[in-house]
Amino acid sequence: MTRYAGIAVAVTIAAAVPACTNAQARNAAEVRLTMHWSRFDQGVVTVPRGVPVTFVYTNDDPIAHEVIVGDQAMQLRHEKGTEPAHGDRPNETDVPANSVVTTTITFDEAGTVFFACHLPGHYAYGMRGLVRVTP
């Protein structure tokens, strides 16, 4: 295949793939956060308001972590709290050692909330970040 034939094939394939409209893009979102050496691989993630966002948490550590997503008051409650495990709350997720866990959260308001691990010492070590929710 000549160089130009390859370009023509690529353009044809690209044209055959339906374009994703804004409405389709706003119907689903995914955020991947990896935990390694008791750190998150990202400090800031951006998500759309009003759209279900699937969070995929990958824990590469040999110890468990948690991911708490919420405002500052929620983070303080968890930092001072003693809850050993979380139930079926999508914004409070246990992530066992060497595992992948998913959860889905829909943010109703634009603004900034936080994600963090509050297992003993983890928050102070730096296991925290921001979720920017766009309008």
Question: What distinguishing features does this structure have?
Answer:
five-stranded mixed β-sheet, 135 residues, alpha/beta, 38% strand, Immunoglobulin-like, disordered N terminus, three-stranded mixed β-sheet
Description of the molecule:
- By secondary structure, this protein is an alpha/beta fold.
- It has a single domain (26-134), classed as Sandwich (Immunoglobulin-like), CATH 2.60.40.
- It is 23% helix and 38% strand.
- The chain contains 4 helices and 8 strands.
- The protein has helices at 3-16, 22-25, 72-80, 122-125, and strands at residues 29-35, 44-48, 52-59, 65-70, 92-95, 99-106, 111-116, 128-134.
- The strands form 2 sheets. The chain has a 5-stranded mixed sheet with strand order 2-8-7-4-5, covered by helices on one side.
- 18% of the residues are buried.
- Residues 1-26 have low confidence and may be disordered.
